[in-house]
Amino acid sequence: MPEGDTIHRSAHHLSLALVGRPVLRYWARRPELLRFRRDRRVVVAVEARGKNLLIHFDDDVALYSHMKMSGSWHIYRPGERWQLPEHLSRVVLENERFVAVCFSAPDIELLTADEVKRLPVLVALGPDLLGPTFDMEEAIARLRAATSRSLVGDRDDGADDASDHASDEAARNGSDVGPSEASHDGRRDRSIGEALLDQRVVSGIGNVWKSEMLFLSAIDPFLPVSGIPDDSLRKLLRDTRVLMRKNLETAVRTTRFGPGGTLWVYERAGEPCYRCRTRIERERQGRPGRSTYYCVRCQNVPRI
């Protein structure tokens, strides 16, 4: 499931392969992706914004892609055999040295610069944890505003099962994302586990990073955002940024560096916690529900 670190890593590799080189062959499966000819156009930049990827050309046109559950970008040498079947390809960009192929991504658009500026998913994005100028105070302010009425939008786009994928679709369509408790002004205060997945709050965090970093921060994922001090939120985001940046250099997402598994809690329901040996729990969180993995003891989660 591509999260912010995966997309930033893809952007880096695509940049090395494409930037400064003219496109010799451009192919797209859908007619709307052929609205502007790309042959002989030069790629001038590749950037990630949260979980969104943009390939910019020298005529102020950009190829936008969002991987959601199953999409991916691959880079090959000309003539090299592809690792995935051709029928899954969506876009192909080829220059004299490399072939970049986008597989299975459901969201791809060829946009003008003005259209990029107006693209709703980009306009609404919160501060990018892996961006060069991450605005911590803006992120804290958005977390504080993360009630079910004030911020409802695109949450995590990866899913650990079909039900989670359905949850993503509902969130993208503006469905109410479930809350925890009512605040003093009558609004419903979302839990920290829900708020972190809202890309309008902070962009780049998905279900894996949510579960892992709340565990490492010893924070109850069901605790309302209003119950967490600003200093704790800053530390959570700062530590997440550091570890996500470290993962830009690894092929496998890793939060646990040592013998055994690479993740502390994610997809380990029923297994013993590496720290205290308590059984790792998995519970649906929010409306519609997303899987949250946690340790009752290490994260001080009240037993019901």
From TrEMBL:
Residues 152-190 are annotated as: Disordered. Residues 152-171 have a biased composition (Basic and acidic residues). SUPFAM superfamilies: Glucocorticoid receptor-like (DNA-binding domain), N-terminal domain of MutM-like DNA repair proteins, S13-like H2TH domain. It comes from the Bacteria. GO terms for biological process: base-excision repair. Gene3D superfamilies: 1.10.8.50, MutM-like, N-terminal. Residues 264-300 form the FPG-type domain. InterPro entries: FPG_cat, FPG_N, H2TH_FPG, Nei2_N, Ribosomal_uS13-like_H2TH, Znf_DNA_glyclase/AP_lyase, Znf_FPG/IleRS. Its EC number is 4.2.99.18. Pfam families: Fapy_DNA_glyco, H2TH, zf-FPG_IleRS. Keywords: DNA damage, DNA repair, DNA-binding, Glycosidase, Hydrolase, Lyase, Metal-binding, Multifunctional enzyme, Zinc, Zinc-finger. Its cofactor is Zn(2+). GO terms for molecular function: class I DNA-(apurinic or apyrimidinic site) endonuclease activity; damaged DNA binding; oxidized pyrimidine nucleobase lesion DNA N-glycosylase activity; zinc ion binding. Residues 2-99 form the Formamidopyrimidine-DNA glycosylase catalytic domain. Belongs to the FPG family. This is DNA-(apurinic or apyrimidinic site) lyase.
